[in-house]
Please model this.
Amino acid sequence: MRRKREGLRQARKSAGLTQEELAYRLRVDRTTVGRWEAGETEPSAWLQPGLAKLLGVSRSRLSCLLDQHEPERPSVTSEDQLNDDERQHMVAALQDARRFVDHDVVSYFRRLLDACAQADGLNGAVPTLPRVLGILGAIETCAGEVEWPVLTELLSVAARGAEFAGWLNRDAHDARHARVWYGRATEFAQEANDTAMQGYVLLKKSQMAYDERDARHVLSLAQAAQYGPWTLSNSVRAEVTQQEARGLAMVGEPLFVVERKLDKARCLVGEADGADVHTQLGSPYTQDTLILRDASCYIEAGKPHHAASLYQQVLAGDVLSRRDRGYFLARLTFSLALSGEPDEAARTGLKAAQLAIATQSQRTRRELMRSVVTLRPWENRPGPRALREVVQAQPVN
Model:
């Protein structure tokens, strides 16, 4: 039995509405509102914008009321990389958005999200997510009072933040909330007429389908991103093309079909200039990123030896964040396990496990669990046995 949503009930009362009045305005039955507040059901997605408006709260705030937790408000401290004048400007904007929210404030929000992205790479999703939700809550508060063209720019930043929140939930192995935030990112992008972000979110959904090994949706979502009515930068097109190659490999297309897509992705990265590579859509897409994604495609195409060599090529350097290094060590572990190299796989997996614990990455842990299953024929060897014990000892979200 779920706990009652006291916050939702209090928000309704603060808005001066009875259950009957709220139900009438939303064109639902009073008992439906009662079930929402009792925690038995959740408002349909299409009802939530109207519900938030009637309650006088932002969409992020409504999400928190439905999930029964409070977001962190974005503090404006030195770690946010704002100087004293900028912090004062931000505080004033949060207090009086109509007067003080301008292009500089939008830039500050963008920088706050950049700082969160750096923190995610170092410390993982769990400590980063509440801060991102707080920033999104502040953006939505401001968005209710500012006008175009600042509003359009602000909503584009909100779309980027919501996409990032979706990713953080993916890494924390919370697919339900990841889908919610990817949906919010699409809504923000539509309001901002940011068509490129709409295509990019489809790519992220395809990648989440890969987390779940849903081959059909990996391919269909990647192709939707590839051929939709938007213009993507060359680096994003390269990422989408590689994702399509991964989907093709998963559904059993011949290797030459997969490699033809990979060759196209390499050409697109080669044509991207510096500004294009460091696109505002997601993380920079470099030659190292290209190699790592190629490796994933070769795993799905039944070439784990080649995949392992590609992972090792990138991991030999120092180009990945701590969280990403753990994840791709786990992917290398799986490649080695598939290649019949149990001892080397176990040694690599133990390194990945240490980083998974440090960054609380459930995504990395899931990859290691797949390796443990693949290593069952050698489960009595010391290395695979040690890896299994470490992975099974980690908490599961």
The CA atoms of residues 310 and 316 lie 10 Å apart. The two ends are 19 Å apart (CA to CA). Residues 71-193 form one domain.
